[in-house]
Design brief:
By secondary structure, this protein is α/β, with parallel strands linked by helices. The protein has an 8-stranded mixed β-sheet with strand order 6-12-10-9-13-16-18-17, sandwiched between helices. A hairpin with a 4-residue loop joins strand 2 and strand 3. The longest helix is centred in the N-terminal third of the chain and has 22 residues, at 80-101.
C-alpha cells in the first residue's frame, strides 16, 4: 500500500470510528486495533484488494466503537477456548453493528469475504460447510454478512441469539453456552471420529500462545480483527502485565507477534483443541497467501516537542564563556601570560585582516544574489495592456489594434531567511578552518543585505560545562509514540541578524579563533596562516564532540516556526555544513515495547522509519540494496535525516541545501553516485565539488573537496613583472580567477540555490 493510500484510509477510519484514530500498515499477519492507544494496524497485502482492505478497516473501527477494554480483559483471564469463542461472537456483534450504522460497507464485507474464499483463506474450500463445528459455521456465516449458504439445522436458535447480542456480557453468556454444547457433542462422538478430528487438527498445530493468537488473528484477519482480539503474548508474564495495563488482545499486531518468539508455548489440551474454531487456525496458517512477509518492518514514530531553553546555548552565553576563557588565560599570575597577550593581539589583527580580505568576496555574493534574484523576477514578469492609448502608436490604428500602452508587472519579492547548521563534531577538526571561512562570508553577506539569519553549531553537551546553562537534563518533552533522541544535544547560537555590529563582530571573532585553533592542528597540510606561538586553550565545554544532526533537526522543528513568524519569512533556506552522517539512532519509540523491534530483527527484517505528521506519513524509498553503489545500503541514520528534512520542508515550505565536506575523495563517494557515473563524479570531486546523485531529503546536496574550500582573496598580481608578455599575464590572471571560482564553491552553490 502506498503512503497516499494509507493517508486516504486513515481518513476513512476516522470517519467510521467518529474519532481521530490512527491507521498504520505494517509487516504483520493480521489486522488489529490498539484500544488503549487508538491505533489501527493493518497488514501489507501482496495484492491489494479494496474490498478486503475496507472490510478490515470497518471491522477494526467497530472494535474501536463497541469493544470495551476492561470487559475484554476479564475474558482473557479465563480459558483459551472461552477467549476464542468470545472473539468469534464479538466479531459477529460488532460487524452487525457497523454494517447497520454504515449500510454502504455491507458490499465490502460480501466482496471481501468472496476474495478470501477464492484463495481458500479459511481452509474449507474442499469441505462441506455444513459439516463444520457450529462455531466455524457461525464464523463463516457472519464473515460473509450472511451471504454464505450455510445450514444451522442443529442449532437454529443460535442466529437469533447472535442477532440480539447487545453487549460483551451477552457475548460471554452465549460463548459459555456454545462451549458446553460443543463439549457435549464431542463426548457423544465415536472414538474413531474423535481420533480423526484430532489428527486433522494436529497437522496445523502452532504454539500454544501463537495458536491462541492465531485463532483471533485468523478470525480477525478474516474478519479483519485478528490481532486485536488475539494477543499471542497473553500467556506470558509480560503479556499478562500488558493486559493488566489495559491492552486488548491483538492490539499492536507487531508486539503481539514478537512476544512469542523466544517463549515456550503453553500446551493446549487435546480436549480444548477439539472444540477450538478451525477456520481461525486455518486462516492463521494461510496469512502468507495475502499478506507481505518480506524483510521490511515499518517503525512509526512522532517527533518529540523541544524545550528550547534546555536545547539552545544562547549567543550571549557563547560570548561570555569565550571572554571568560580569554581573561582567565590572560591573567597576570600566569607564567605564560605574556605569550597569550601576544597571541591575543595577533588574533585581533588576523581577524581584521580576514574581514578586509574577504570584503570583496562578500560584495561578490551580494552582486550574484541580486543578479540572480533580478533574473528570476524578470523571468516571471508579465506584460499587460493598460487601456490607455499610446500616442506613438496611434498612427497605426487603421491596420493594428495594438495602440495601447503596456505595463510590465514584476512579481513581488519574497522575504528571505537563512538558518545555518554547522557540524561541531570531532571529525571536523581538519576541515573546520575552511568551513568556518565559508560560513563567515555567508554571515556577513546575509547581514549586508539585511536578511534574517541564524547560525547554530550542533554538538553534544558534556557534563564538564560550568556556565549558566548547567542543566544537562533531556531537552525533549516526550509523549507516547515519540522517537527517543540523544539527551545531551545542544545548538550553540553563534550568530544572528539581530545582533548589534559590535556583538556580531565579537561572535565572529571567537568563531575565527576556533578556525585558527583547528588550523594549527592541521599545520603543514593546506593552510598557510597557522599561528606558531602559544595559543589559548579552547573553552572546555566547546570542544568538538559527536554529530547529533538528527536531534538538531528535531530542535529546529520548534525553532523554525518561531523564526518564520517573528520575521515574516516567506522563503526559508536551511543549510547544513557537515563532514559526515549523523549519529546512529536509538530506534526506540516511547511507550512501546522493544519486543516488536526484537521480533523484526529475529525474523531478519529491516526496520523502516516512518514519521507520523498529522494525518500524513513520511517514509523513504530505497534503491536496490544489492547495488554496490548508491546511497545507504540499509536503513540508518541517513534515512532518519532524510525523513526529518522532508518533514521540515513539508511543514514550513522551506528549501534545504546540504554540504558534505569530504577530506578524501576516494572515501565514501559511492554513497552519492551510481556505478555508471562514479568516474565522472570523482573527477568533479577532485576539481572541487559534485552534486550528489541521491538528494537525501535535500533540495540539493553537494559533496565538496575540503582541499578546494579555502577562499582565495588575491589575483596573484604580485607575480607580475615588467618584462612579462601579455600571454603570460593573461595566464596568471586566468589561474587566479579559476582558483577564486573553485574556492567559492559553497558560496556559489548557496547563492545559486536560494536566490
Amino acid at each position: 500500500m502506498t503512503l497516499s493510500l494509507i493517508n486516504k484510509k486513515s481518513t476513512l477510519a476516522k470517519l467510521l470510528a467518529t474519532e481521530n484514530i490512527e491507521v498504520q500498515q505494517n509487516n504483520v499477519r493480521t489486522a488489529s486495533f490498539d484500544v488503549k492507544n487508538r491505533i489501527l494496524t493493518i497488514p501489507i497485502f501482496k495484492h491489494e484488494n479494496k474490498d478486503v482492505l475496507d472490510m478490515l478497516i470497518a471491522h477494526e473501527c467497530a472494535h474501536a466503537l463497541w469493544t470495551g477494554l476492561d470487559d475484554w480483559k476479564s475474558i482473557v483471564e479465563e480459558s483459551e477456548e472461552f477467549k476464542a469463542y468470545c472473539n468469534v461472537l464479538e466479531d459477529c456483534r460488532i460487524d452487525r453493528m457497523i454494517q447497520k450504522k454504515y449500510p454502504g460497507i455491507v458490499k465490502n464485507y460480501i466482496k471481501g469475504y468472496r476474495e478470501l474464499i477464492k484463495i481458500d483463506f479459511f481452509g474449507v474450500n474442499n469441505k462441506d460447510f455444513n459439516t463444520l463445528n457450529l462455531i466455524d459455521r457461525i464464523n463463516l456465516f457472519y464473515k460473509s454478512s450472511k451471504s454464505a449458504d450455510i445450514s444451522f439445522y442443529d442449532a437454529e436458535w443460535v442466529i437469533d441469539e447472535i442477532d440480539n447480542l447487545k453487549s460483551l456480557d451477552d457475548v460471554k453468556v452465549l460463548a459459555r453456552k456454545l462451549i458446553e454444547q460443543e463439549k457435549a457433542k464431542q463426548e457423544s462422538t465415536s472414538d474413531n471420529h474423535e481420533q480423526g478430528d484430532s489428527n486433522e487438527e494436529s497437522t496445523s498445530d502452532v504454539s500454544d500462545d501463537s495458536q491462541s493468537s492465531s485463532q483471533y488473528d485468523d478470525n480477525d484477519t478474516v474478519d479483519d480483527v485478528t490481532d486485536e482480539d488475539t494477543k499471542e503474548e497473553e500467556t506470558t508474564t509480560e503479556q499478562k502485565s500488558s493486559d493488566e495495563e489495559g491492552e486488548v488482545p491483538g492490539e499492536g499486531g507487531q508486539d503481539s507477534e514478537s512476544s512469542t518468539i523466544n517463549k515456550e508455548p503453553d500446551p493446549i489440551t487435546e480436549e480444548q483443541d477439539k472444540i477450538m474454531p478451525q477456520t481461525v487456525k486455518n486462516a492463521e496458517s494461510n496469512t502468507d497467501k495475502v499478506t507481505y512477509s518480506g524483510d521490511k518492518f515499518l517503525k512509526y514514530f512522532n517527533v518529540p516537542d523541544t524545550d528550547i531553553k534546555k536545547a539552545v546555548i544562547t549567543n550571549s552565553q557563547f560570548r561570555k564563556d569565550h571572554k571568560d576563557n580569554f581573561l582567565k588565560q590572560l591573567g597576570a599570575n600566569r607564567y605564560n601570560a605574556d605569550s597569550y597577550r601576544v597571541f591575543y593581539d595577533w588574533l585581533k589583527k588576523d581577524f581584521a585582516k580576514f574581514k578586509h580580505d574577504n570584503l570583496k568576496t562578500v560584495n561578490y555574493l551580494v552582486k550574484e544574489f541580486e543578479m540572480k534574484k533580478s533574473a528570476t523576477a524578470y523571468k516571471r514578469a508579465s506584460t499587460d495592456k493598460t487601456g490607455v492609448i499610446d500616442p506613438l502608436k496611434l498612427k497605426n490604428y487603421k491596420f493594428s489594434d495594438d495602440i495601447f500602452k503596456r505595463l510590465t508587472i514584476l512579481p513581488d519579492g519574497k522575504n528571505h531567511g537563512f538558518i545555518f547548521l554547522l557540524d561541531w563534531s570531532g571529525s571536523m577538526y581538519d576541515c573546520m578552518d575552511t568551513t568556518i571561512e565559508q560560513l563567515m562570508n555567508l554571515v556577513y553577506f546575509a547581514k549586508k543585505i539585511n536578511i534574517p539569519f541564524k547560525v547554530y553549531a550542533f554538538t553534544e553537551w558534556g557534563n564538564n560545562y560550568t556556565g549558566a546553562n548547567t542543566d544537562i537534563k533531556h531537552p525533549f518533552n516526550y509523549k507516547n509514540g515519540d522517537l527517543e533522541m540523544r539527551s545531551n544535544v545542544r545548538l550553540i547560537d553563534i550568530a544572528s541578524h539581530t545582533l548589534k555590529k559590535r556583538d556580531l563582530d565579537e561572535s565572529m571573532f571567537f568563531l575565527h579563533y576556533h578556525k585558527v585553533y583547528y588550523q594549527s592542528q592541521t599545520r603543514g597540510r593546506y593552510n598557510d596562516r597557522s599561528y606558531s606561538g602559544a595559543m589559548f586553550w579552547m573553552p572546555e565545554a566547546y570542544n568538538l564532540s559527536s554529530t547529533p544532526l538528527n536531534e538538531a533537526l528535531v530542535v529546529l522543528d520548534k525553532i523554525i516556526p518561531l523564526f518564520k513568524n517573528k520575521y515574516s519569512i516567506e522563503k526559508l533556506s536551511l543549510v547544513t555544513l557537515t563532514d559526515g552522517h549523523a549519529n546512529s539512532m536509538s530506534r526506540h519509540v516511547i511507550g512501546q515495547s522493544l519486543s516488536s523491534e526484537n521480533f523484526a530483527r529475529a525474523r531478519g527484517k529491516v526496520l523502516v522509519p516512518v514519521i507520523k505528521n498529522g494525518n500524513k506519513r513520511i517514509m523513504i524509498k530505497k534503491k536496490n540494496s544489492r547495488n554496490r553503489y548508491g546511497y545507504a545500503h540499509s536503513y540508518d541514520s541517513r534515512d532518519y535525516t532524510n525523513l526529518l528534512i522532508t518533514l521540515l520542508k513539508q511543514k514550513y515550505s522551506m528549501i534545504a541545501v546540504g554540504f558534505h565536506i569530504m577530506k578524501n575523495v576516494n572515501y565514501g563517494i559511492s554513497d552519492y553516485c551510481t556505478e555508471k557515473n562514479y568516474d565522472s563524479f570523482r573527477k568533479k570531486m577532485v576539481k572541487g565539488s559534485a552534486v550528489a546523485e541521491i538528494k537525501h531529503g535535500y533540495d540539493e546536496f553537494y559533496v565538496l573537496n575540503n582541499k578546494k574550500l579555502k577562499v582565495i582573496v588575491d589575483n596573484n598580481t604580485d607575480e607580475i613583472t615588467e618584462d612579462m608578455k601579455t600571454s603570460q599575464i593573461k595566464r596568471l590572471f586566468s589561474k587566479g580567477m579559476k582558483g577564486k571560482i573553485t574556492s567559492r564553491v559553497v558560496l556559489n552553490k548557496f547563492i545559486e540555490k536560494v536566490a
